């Protein structure tokens, strides 16, 4: 079924949820007649008052007594041997406390890999905390200066003199795999990081018998994850305890603790990591960086707290970039537009190194998802990771999924153009039927649920597809070119089942939740996930309120501190609601089970006769024989009797969830653009996003995620692009030349929902955090090319800037 969004908040408040919350309900004996349910309701976010009144706990708000400030000296050339580093002048700068280079980092281990690349048998070059011997990208850390003030640290860094012997640089993946390409890493034969293939069915046979083929080379260009709060870290080392406290902007606090322990050879129990409030991440704060290892080392070496906050210009050089693929793909199809196979190769630009827990699997997510929402059963696509003299790449909202969607959706439109068919009709003819789930793709994925045709139809209706096509045929009075773009998508969410993670060379990605019930009846839930804008404090409380049947405002959610939160794997890959949310549900169910057991004893009844109703527990059919949840919480802690064997005081519980499979969100985005042929300017005049994220926990939060993701996807299509010159010098290293749209360039967006609950978890949720960025970019791209096709333009790469579009129109 579908739900058209766009209702007011008040209408959302009064609307009954489409889904009745967690589908497993509650444990046996729990009543289902509670007066209010929260899952599915658009309650306002618990976090917002704190942020709106300036009470957020961001890294820049924290300072420690006696702290010094770090400033990095970064490589100014893309590829060179370091022939000398002179730090004498820097050490004499007033306020400078220390300068460290690679030679000073005795005992510091190489940066470890958490996730292995898709081809784990291939040896990889070591990544060091500070460059030693050779630099391989502009921005690689060479030295770190510590000083009493940020200004003194910057002055000291300016005074460090690094001498280089330049080497040839290579920045483009196709150049990097050429036979005569300069090799980045000594001792390696070429610049190949890894190779892997995704094969299934009989692609060779399908192409041999196909009546039609279409092939395209497509570039999914490099972009920067532009977050409101840049990366930063404070590390404080206690020499007496030999322990370290770390405050850091991260998506994965427990992995950060592991990382620091590995690099500094410290026991993890002596490291405490606190993420605090994180001002956005988009994947860029998932990797663990050499910068963070250097800050931790400096804190231990100096015995003083060290604070480092990345500057905005620095972030363009040092924080991982996203995307940067070149795909050469071909599909085989018949005269009706029914696709039988796909084949080709995708080159992924890894940058200068493979980063600890991100790069190798990002392009690895692209290959499995190439079939998208379509039923063709044969594929043969090679995926190649390539080293270049550029900033390392890593996860950026969607992380491999937007790229797969972009390639396949571009090809679907090319099939339609080749046969003169409507692009919407070609999609209908190729969709996996709604009744065929679970569906096994030729790349080995098992899709859980969906109704792709229904989502498409909703998008077409919302955009007035027939009306826009009529306007396109008739033309506009001012000569503007009209284009309509459609993009259907399927994405991997609920990342990752441990069984799959092991095959990817990654530790298993289960999740945890610990419920503490205070004597007052108030509940605190500590999570292994770590929010950075997703509304976790709200959505997890909604799940808990429904399960515990207590007021939503009586529940607080905590995360991000390794000292107080149970071990977990953090927030990425649209996993928090599906995996972390289910851990919350399971933990709360344990609380209910314990509460029923205690209520039976206190009410002198059989446990089977105890039911949960209106925030209390009562004997079934005897309303006067009841005990409030708060009283139960108090009495089970302040016991007036000895504990029996196996009996536990209180109602606290902890639970874990390891999903049996991924979840698979899906949807269709539709876009209308107007192109000015005189200037090449593209304007998005209408956009609708229809998304199936399974059970919707909070419509307001879901819509917010879609709005943000769509804005980023449109921005990649029209504005953003990281550019290097032939020598590896970045040409887009500030907001003067890297275009980030404002609200004025962001179009009005309408959302609608197609709901098919996932059978993978008991809540039925799939995930929504990345969907907006997955469907939007190809929708805009297809719309632009649809507008330009009548003028003779058959192919054009993003971003569709006025200059590019105008030049393409001139060529025709």
TrEMBL record:
Residues 53-168 form the Aldehyde oxidase/xanthine dehydrogenase a/b hammerhead domain. This is Xanthine dehydrogenase family protein molybdopterin-binding subunit. Keywords: Molybdenum, Oxidoreductase. SMART domains: Ald_Xan_dh_C (SM01008). InterPro entries: Ald_Oxase/Xan_DH_a/b, Ald_Oxase/Xan_DH_a/b_sf, Ald_Oxase/xanthine_DH-like, AldOxase/xan_DH_MoCoBD1, AldOxase/xan_DH_MoCoBD2, AldOxase/xan_DH_Mopterin-bd_sf. The keyword Oxidoreductase applies. Its cofactor is Mo-molybdopterin cytosine dinucleotide. It holds the Pfam family Ald_Xan_dh_C. Gene3D superfamilies: Aldehyde oxidase/xanthine dehydrogenase, a/b hammerhead (3.90.1170.50), Aldehyde oxidase/xanthine dehydrogenase, molybdopterin binding domain (3.30.365.10). It comes from the Bacteria. Residues 1-38 are annotated as: Disordered. GO terms for molecular function: iron ion binding; oxidoreductase activity. Signal peptide: none annotated. The keyword Chloroplast does not apply.
């Amino acid at each position: 079924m579908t739900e058209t969004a766009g209702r007011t908040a008040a209408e959302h408040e009064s609307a009954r949820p489409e889904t009745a919350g967690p589908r497993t309900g509650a444990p046996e004996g729990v009543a289902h007649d509670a007066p209010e349910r929260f899952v599915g309701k658009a309650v306002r976010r618990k976090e917002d008052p704190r942020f709106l009144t300036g009470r957020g706990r961001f890294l820049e708000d924290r300072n420690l007594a006696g702290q010094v400030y770090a400033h990095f000296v970064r490589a100014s050339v893309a590829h060179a041997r370091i022939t000398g580093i002179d730090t004498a002048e820097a050490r004499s700068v007033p306020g400078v406390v220390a300068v460290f280079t690679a030679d000073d980092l005795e005992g510091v281990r190489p940066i470890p890999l958490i996730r292995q690349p898709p081809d784990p048998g291939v040896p990889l070059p070591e990544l060091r905390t500070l460059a030693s011997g050779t630099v391989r990208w502009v921005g690689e850390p060479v030295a770190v200066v510590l000083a009493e003030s940020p200004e003194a640290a910057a002055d000291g860094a300016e005074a460090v003199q690094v001498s280089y012997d330049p080497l040839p640089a290579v920045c483009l993946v196709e150049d990097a795999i050429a036979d005569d390409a300069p090799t980045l890493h000594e001792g390696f034969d070429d610049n190949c990081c890894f190779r892997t293939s995704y094969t299934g069915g009989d692609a060779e046979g399908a192409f041999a018998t196909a009546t039609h083929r279409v092939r395209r080379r497509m570039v999914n260009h490099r972009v920067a994850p532009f977050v409101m709060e840049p990366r930063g870290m404070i590390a404080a080392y206690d020499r007496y305890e030999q322990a370290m406290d770390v405050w850091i902007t991260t998506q994965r606090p427990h992995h950060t603790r592991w990382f620091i322990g590995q690099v500094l050879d410290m026991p993890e129990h002596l490291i405490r990591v606190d993420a605090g409030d994180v001002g956005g991440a988009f994947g860029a704060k998932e990797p663990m960086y050499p910068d963070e290892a250097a800050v931790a080392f400096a804190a231990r070496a100096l015995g003083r707290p060290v604070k480092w906050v990345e500057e905005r210009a620095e972030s363009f050089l040092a924080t991982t970039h996203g995307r940067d693929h070149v795909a050469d793909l071909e599909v085989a199809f018949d005269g009706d537009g029914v696709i039988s196979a796909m084949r080709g190769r995708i080159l992924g630009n890894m940058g200068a190194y493979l980063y600890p827990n991100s790069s190798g699997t990002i392009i690895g997510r692209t290959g499995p998802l190439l079939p998208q929402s379509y039923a063709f059963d044969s594929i043969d696509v090679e995926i190649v990771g390539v080293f270049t003299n550029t900033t390392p790449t890593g996860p950026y909202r969607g992380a491999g999924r937007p790229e797969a969607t972009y390639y396949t959706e571009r090809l679907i439109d090319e099939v339609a153009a080749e046969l003169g068919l409507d692009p919407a009709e070609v999609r209908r003819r190729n969709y996996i039927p709604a009744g065929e789930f679970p569906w096994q793709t030729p790349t080995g994925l098992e899709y859980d649920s969906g109704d792709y045709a229904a989502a498409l139809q909703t998008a077409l209706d919302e955009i007035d597809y027939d009306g826009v096509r009529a306007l396109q045929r008739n033309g506009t009075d001012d000569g503007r070119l009209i284009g309509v773009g459609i993009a259907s998508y399927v994405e991997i969410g609920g990342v990752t089942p441990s069984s799959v993670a092991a095959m990817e060379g990654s530790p298993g990605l289960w999740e945890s939740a610990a419920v503490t019930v205070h004597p007052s009846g108030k509940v605190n839930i500590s999570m292994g996930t770590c929010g950075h804008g997703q509304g976790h404090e709200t959505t997890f409380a909604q799940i808990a309120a429904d399960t515990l049947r207590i007021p939503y405002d009586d529940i607080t959610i905590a995360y991000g501190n390794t000292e107080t939160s149970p071990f977990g794997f953090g927030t990425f890959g649209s996993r928090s609601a599906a995996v972390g949310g289910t851990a919350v549900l399971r933990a709360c169910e344990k609380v209910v089970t314990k509460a029923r057991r205690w209520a039976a004893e206190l009410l002198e009844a059989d446990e089977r006769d105890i039911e949960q109703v209106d925030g209390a527990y009562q004997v079934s059919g005897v309303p006067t024989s009841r005990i409030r949840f708060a009283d139960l919480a108090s009495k089970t802690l302040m016991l007036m009797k000895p504990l029996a064997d196996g009996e536990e005081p209180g109602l606290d519980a902890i639970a874990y969830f390891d999903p049996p499979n991924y979840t698979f969100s899906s949807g269709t985005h539709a876009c209308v653009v107007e192109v000015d042929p005189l200037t090449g300017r593209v304007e998005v005049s209408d956009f609708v996003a229809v998304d199936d994220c399974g059970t919707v926990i909070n419509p307001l939060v879901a819509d917010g995620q879609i709005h943000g993701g769509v804005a980023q996807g449109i921005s990649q299509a029209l504005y953003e692009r990281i550019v290097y010159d032939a020598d590896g010098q970045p040409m887009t290293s500030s907001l003067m030349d890297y275009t980030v749209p404002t609200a004025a360039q962001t179009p009005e967006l309408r959302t609608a929902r197609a709901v098919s609950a996932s059978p993978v978890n008991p809540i039925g949720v799939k995930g929504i955090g990345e969907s907006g960025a997955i469907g939007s970019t190809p929708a805009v791209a297809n719309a632009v090319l649809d507008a330009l096709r009548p003028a003779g333009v058959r192919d054009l790469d993003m971003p569709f800037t006025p200059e590019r579009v105008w030049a393409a129109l001139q060529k025709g």
